[in-house]
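User: Sequence recovery, please. Input:
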C-alpha cells in the first residue's frame, strides 16, 4: 500500500492564480464530477489527461467531445511523465500503483474539492472538510 506524502498535497506556486498552461492529470476522470472538472480546466487553459477503469456514457461521450482519451486503469504508466499536478478522485485507493508514481516523482496533488475551491469557487478550504465549507 502506498501512502501519499502530505507535503505534496499542495498547489505549485506557478499555478496559484490560474491553471493556464498546466498539465493536470485526473485520476478517476470517469466520475461525473471529475469529468466536469476536466471541462472547467480545459476552458481555463489547462492541458488535461486522465485515467480510470471502464468509463461509460454519458461521461465517455463528454470526454470524447473534449478530446480526452482516458488511460485505462490506475497503473504506474497512467501518470504522464510531464504532469504538473494530479487531482485524485475518490475512487483511488492506497492499493492503486498510480499513487506510487505520484510519490516517486514528487508530483503535487489535490482532491477534487481542493481544485474546485482553488480555481473555480474561491471558497472551499483544502483538506478533509472539502465542500462542507461552502454551506
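Assistant: Recovered sequence (135 residues):
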Amino acid at each position: 500500500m502506498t501512502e501519499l506524502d502530505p507535503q505534496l498535497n499542495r498547489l505549485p506556486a506557478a499555478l496559484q492564480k490560474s491553471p493556464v498552461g498546466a498539465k493536470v492529470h485526473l485520476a478517476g476522470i470517469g466520475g461525473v464530477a471529475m469529468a466536469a472538472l476536466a471541462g472547467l480546466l480545459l476552458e481555463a487553459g489547462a492541458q488535461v489527461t486522465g485515467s480510470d477503469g471502464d468509463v461509460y456514457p454519458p461521461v465517455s461521450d463528454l470526454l470524447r467531445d473534449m478530446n480526452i482519451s482516458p488511460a485505462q486503469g490506475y497503473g504506474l504508466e497512467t501518470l504522464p511523465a510531464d504532469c504538473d499536478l494530479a487531482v485524485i478522485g475518490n475512487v483511488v485507493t492506497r492499493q492503486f500503483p498510480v499513487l506510487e508514481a505520484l510519490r516517486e516523482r514528487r508530483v503535487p496533488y489535490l482532491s477534487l474539492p481542493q481544485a474546485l475551491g482553488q480555481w473555480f469557487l474561491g471558497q472551499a478550504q483544502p483538506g478533509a472538510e472539502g465542500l462542507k465549507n461552502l454551506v
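The two ends are 34 Å apart (CA to CA).
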